[in-house]
Amino acid sequence: MNQEHSGSGDPAKSLELLWRRRPAPTRGPKPALTVDGIVTAALKVADADGLVAMSMRRVADELGVGAMTLYRYFPGKGELLDVMLDTVYGELPRRVVPGDWRAALDEVARENRELYLRHPWLLQVAISRPPLGPNVMAKYEWELTAVEGIGLTDLEMDATVSLVNGYVHGAVRTAVEARQVIQRSGMTDKEWWLAHVPHLDQIGDLEKFPLSSRVGTAVGNEFDAPYDAEHAFEYGLERLLDGVSALVGNRTAPEG
Amino acid sequence: MNQEHSGSGDPAKSLELLWRRRPAPTRGPKPALTVDGIVTAALKVADADGLVAMSMRRVADELGVGAMTLYRYFPGKGELLDVMLDTVYGELPRRVVPGDWRAALDEVARENRELYLRHPWLLQVAISRPPLGPNVMAKYEWELTAVEGIGLTDLEMDATVSLVNGYVHGAVRTAVEARQVIQRSGMTDKEWWLAHVPHLDQIGDLEKFPLSSRVGTAVGNEFDAPYDAEHAFEYGLERLLDGVSALVGNRTAPEG
DNA sequence: GCTATTCTTCGTACAGTGTACGCAGTTGAC
DNA sequence: GTCAACTGCGTACACTGTACGAAGAATAGC
Question: Coiled-coil regions in this chain (chains A, B) (predicted)?
Fold first, then answer.
């Protein structure tokens, strides 16, 4: 995170925007822009250069208008982010895998992962109170479908879906960070490590960390880097679903 | 994230700062500040008001000096963050639980959780290339100790430790976001929900989301909020360790 | 003690940020 | 034709990290 926040304005205005229920004005000049047009431009900027680059001025430039013009369409930047979020959630295929909760949860994880990879700025948006737009709500409904009817309580269903979502968020965040730091520094992980080793040797406390040295070397040899995103994602997801499996298995088995 | 980054400067300078190996200058005026003093002031600001508030000017104010003075001690804000990170990692008790990998990993998770809760700004610091200070290295060594000698490969040891760390990061991030949004909005989750319901009813598509309605209601009744941090953390950690258990169990059992 | 060198503190400046305020011009309702 | 409603947007404010260079302090070498 540096977290970016949702709009804190009144729910009526936010929901009006999310569900496109704004009544068209009868008088005054015809608006030059549309909500969808602004969101498209903002998504273009955010996808290309990240949330940091997505300033109101930059989005306005993209549309050939002044910065303050955007405030005729959105109460503030927070509300624009809300609509951007709901919009990209609409990209989820939301494929349903019936009869196999593990495959269904796997699908949920992978679709979410693809979405984060396509829109890495999503990782920086705080969603503890998600914008209640059509696609946000459809996403939650779809995720619950994956764990419906397998013997979990409603609370456990919610907790499981949250757990998978949290896992994917963390895994992709780590992967994206790793990718971005290579870009920003112009250095691969190996180069970075090799630049540090001589100075660390000089400090000379390395023998106090025998496990780190052994494991670090093994990881470096395997991946040419201290971190491999693909491997980490698969490993973690398997552990996680195994953990859920232990719970589901207990639940469907007769109680002792 | 809005991610804050580490210092990208040369490793020599960074390691010198992290390990406090800067040679004391012989000539010139006596420095008015120390590295530790600046870090303490910066931690005070970050703990109290978050990373957003921790500007160079604010830290300098805290110390009664001009903003540019700090640049005599640190090449830039990134390096200051690096030393802050290594410093708070030093707060970990690093208790070792011998002979029981599950209890040991549980301890790792809980100590990390406490650290994040005490210093929520840690959640916003990108650590894909961690500052190689004494406490960062000791932390990794301690975490590996928890899974040493239980039949995992070196790669699996690293992946397991990363998985637990990633899980804790995500769980605390969600919890902290939830706490902060209450502060910022001056609204409890229940109040927020009740403010939205009438407008959602008016939009009238709620019957398209039956699972969400049922599960959401159950969660709301149980916790008076759509999210309970304590419950989510315990539930997720148990699933995670169960998943690791499945792997360790396979490994220690004789191979087919 | 004198001077040259090194090291300190820090004021100013620059290009950015979100958005409050208010003005000028355009459109449709009456 | 008049007025209210509406649009676009210029300006301003308080912030950010930090490059640059000036002014002064402490010491090494003589």
Answer: none
